[in-house]
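CHAIN AND CONFORMATION:

***
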Amino acid sequence: MKKIFLSLVFLIFAPVFAFGRTITLGEFLDQYTAIKKPAASYKYIKLNYKNIEPLTYEHIVMQKAVYLDLMPNKHINFPFKAKMSEKMAVSLLEKFEWISLEATDAALSQEVLDIMLSFIKWTSAKNVEVSLNREYDIAKNREFAILNDVYEKLTKLHYDKDELVKSKLLHGAVKGMAQATDDEYTAYFPPVESKTFTESLQGEFVGIGAYVDMPQPGKFIITAPIEGSPAEKAWIKGGDQVIQVDDFVITEEHGTQTIIQHIKGERGTKVTLTIIRDGKTLEIDVIRDLIIIESVEEKKLDAGTAYIDINQFSDGIYYKFATILEEANIENKNKIIIDLTDNPGGSLQDVVMMLDHFVPKGKPSVVTRDLNNEEVILSEWAESKYYLGNKKVIFMINNGSASASEILAGTAKEYNPQAIIVGEQSFGKGSVQSLVEYFDNSLLKITTAKWFTGKDKVSIDDVGITPDIIVEDDPETEKDEILEKAKTL
């Protein structure tokens, strides 16, 4: 068996695993989460562990661990003070058989810590003794032997082997593996693409400012330009199909993030998009600029109506939403319009917290199902003056409303008989993705669960939500037909 030695030293972990030293699982998680640096909103996670007291060191560490999806948030006594040593960690990892480690005086590398944490998470989630004899042992599986041999042949025998970039070969292999799942939401992002993807989640980047979709391989569609963006100023329209970016021709082999990477660039530079619109081919020049997407904002209509526009569910949006409810003096409004059009979704954690304003306390707000079980997330505190479950709420949706947008509108409608959904059939994305970050800053986005509306457990995956009142927005006009209808209800 060929042994793989992980010898990289990640110095910042040196205080953790000095050779022969015993530490606790809690100390390990503390150090690990310090490196991962979760967003400040981790502190609002409600822990389910029976033995972790609020406002303690243990509580803070476990909030970070759950936020980063390192540990399952279950109703169990968590072994926070369980002791482990470097030797123990090495021993555990050796049992995987496909990896061999050398215990040294140095700190364990980032790769080792990632693998070890995956093992701990796996056994914690099962909560039972688990056999370590893996069915798909890398060293024994023939398909992996082919993969390794192809890499060896390319790097040693290819005519232009000195021109090959080894990291590019490896990233390409992993990327192809993710694509082979035939799941459009599972993807692997090499370091540069990972940065592009992460920036899009944060709501601030340099680009043209447009929402996009790839309904089928090679078909890259602008769903809508962002209001006030360079794309809108250059007359890019929803429905435009981009077939070329400068000299880069889009084919079925290119993923969404690869294309976006070509569209993005330095602020103030020009990018030429070749598009197909109404059967005609056009070339449009767009000047890149800093794009800042306001995740949620209130817009003025009339004294009796609160109009809240939610553009995407970025991390921390809940607190902005709660602030808007307070500033809008929501308890004195006769009608609340919540605009979810062209909202692609985002943070499941934040939409769960937002649903507390719509779902009675103790009732299910979201149901998720993974490979092994069902998790029901209950509303925590719906008895505030900002409770919207008994008010007239109108949700605006269209075919660009997806994922968290559909969770919010669908579940709120189930509990509130006064709620009205108006607009177009929504996108229909009922799957949940988890993010796995690797030592080289590459990223795996993998579908790990399906979600269902809280009360009736309805799945909208590949179906979408049908509005109570169907209104089609005309992209050829500046008028917002869906909003105009919502005002009259």
